[in-house]
Amino acid sequence: MKSFGLGILPLLLGCSSHQDTGKYVGDIITRTDFEDMTGWGADVSAVTRERAHSGRFAIFVNPTREFSLTYRLPLREASVHQIKAIDLEAWVYVPSPNTNASLDVQVGSTAPGGGGTVYTEQLRLIDQVHEFGKWTKVQHTYVLPAGLSPDNELRIYLWRNTSPEPVYLDDLQAKARE
Q1: Residues 166-176: pLDDT tens digits?
Q2: CATH superfamily, region 21-177
Q3: Can you point out the beta strands (E) in 53-114?
Q4: Cα 114 to the chain's mean position, in Å?
Q5: Which pLDDT belongs to residue 14?
Q6: CB atoms closer than 10 angstroms to residue 65
Q7: Are 73 and 5 in contact (CB under 8 A)?
Q8: How far is residue 103's CA from residue 68's CA, in Å, rounded to a whole number?
Q9: Is the separation of the CB atoms in 2 and 150 below 8 Å?
Q10: Domain range list for the chain
Q11: Alpha carbon distance 13, 94 (integer Å)
Q12: d(CA 65, CA 169)
C-alpha cells in the first residue's frame, strides 16, 4: 500500500501551459475513497464522516485545518514510466462561492538539507464547481516539468487557502501520463 501522511507544505504557486502532456499508459498512481485507513499512518482527525461522496469517509479542510491528509510518494514508485503529467479527478463538496480551496499537486526535493519544492500547481475548485452545497466531479491535468529526479516526492492534497467554510474531497484518482 502506498504511504500517506500529513504535512504542512511550502507553497510555490505555478501554472503550466505545456502542450506535451504525454499519453495515459495504464499507470494508476493512486485511487482511494478514504475507506481503508490501514497502513496510512494517518492522523484520524484528518478524515471525517461528516460528509462523504461514497462510503463513510472523506478528507477535508476547514478554518482550523489548512491542509488535508496528504498523499506522498517518491516519483520512482508512482509509475514504472517517467511521468510527464498527472490526470487527477476527484469529487469535491464546496458549500458556497466564498470558498477558494484548491486541489494541489506538488513535487518536492528530498535532497539532504531540504531542497524545497520544485513544482506546484493548483486546481482552484471554484473554477470547476458552479453548483454549491453538492458533490461535484473535478478533473485536471497537471503537467510536470522535464528533468524531475525519480527521488523527488509527489504530493497531492487539498489546501484551504482562506476558505471560511469546510471543503470536502472524496473518491480521488491520479493517473500517470508518460
Answers
A1: 999 999 999 99
A2: Galactose-binding domain-like (2.60.120.260)
A3: 58-61, 70-74, 85-93, 102-108
A4: 21
A5: 34
A6: 19
A7: no
A8: 10
A9: no
A10: 21-177
A11: 22
A12: 14
> What pLDDT is attached to residue 20?
59
Q: What CA–CA distance (Å, rounded) separates 49 from 130?
A: 24
- DSSP characters for 106-126? EEE---TT---EEEEEEEEGG
The C-alpha angle 173, 177, 178, rounded to 5 degrees, equals 150
Instruction: Determine whether 41 is exposed, middle or buried from the number of CB atoms within 10 Å of its CB (0-12, 13-18, 19+).
Output: exposed
CA distance 147 to 4: 25
Q: Is the pLDDT of residue 13 over 60?
A: no
pTM as predicted: 0.80
Contact 7/72 with Cβ under 8 angstroms? Answer: yes
Residue with cell 523527488: 152
Range 123-133 average pLDDT? 97
Strand 70-74 and strand 153-159: pairing?
antiparallel
Positive or negative torsion for Cα 122, 1, 49, 63? negative
Nearest-CA neighbor of 23 among 86, 100, 65?
86
